[in-house]
Amino acid sequence: MSVGWKRTDSGGYECFLEYEKANSMGCVEYAATFGSVILLVMTLPFSLFWCFKVVQEYERAVIFRLGRLRTGGARGPGIFFILPCVDSYCKVDLRTVSFDVPPQEALTKDSVTVTVDAVVYYRIQDPLNAVTKVTNYSNSTRLLAMTTLRNILGTRNLAEVLSDREAISHAMQTNLDVATDPWGVKVERVEIKDVSLPQQLQRAMAAEAEASREARAKVIAAEGEMKASRALKEAADVINESPAALQLRYLQTLNNISAEKNSTIIFPLPIDLISYFINFHNGTQII
User: Fold this and answer.
1) Burial (Cβ within 10 Å: 0-12, 13-18, ≥19) of residue 127
2) Residue limits of the Band domain (predicted)?
């Protein structure tokens, strides 16, 4: 038992008594450890098969002695020694683990129901916290990933969910990493796999896209007609300036018609050629 003084909230001091329970627990621990050593010596060499343990390069062992975490941190890789009956250990895999987030149905910011699934990659960064701070770090990370995905989808519009998946993945990774850091878990990567929309909304979006494509096609056709009209006007102006060009056009037209092997060929005569006969029939003569 120890006597001391501590400061109160009002600014004064008060006396307190503290029983040294640590020493009594230490004595029990020392006695149990001593008995375990005796048992180990009495059962040699068979006890060595249960006392020496091996962990791989990608594993770490967290050792407890009578429920208390042993000093020195996690053991491994390699061989480590435990005492029978008083020591227990837990292996932790440090490799990157991936799991699928089940499809989550959420309501976006613009009140559209979407179903999104993702993949999360994580690894254990601190084996001690992964064992002592959370009961099941794997299951806890999975549940947290599902809730985080729904929360992030609720802050985005449908257009952002469909077009900006990378930003959603980055935001989800950041939120998960901050939340799992006290557990010794490091979230390395998050990927959005698929975004599913209701059938009615898919049909509406398909109709909207088709109408948009038809509108663009009509605009392109109108622009083509306008350019063709301008080119035709320029060609007519050129032909009007040169009568010989008109005659060459007539001959080219006849060449195209004859190439088709038609039975009837219409030969257009220039109006200047037949104007003489028309005036002569009317009783006039052009000199």
Assistant:
1) buried
2) 50-209
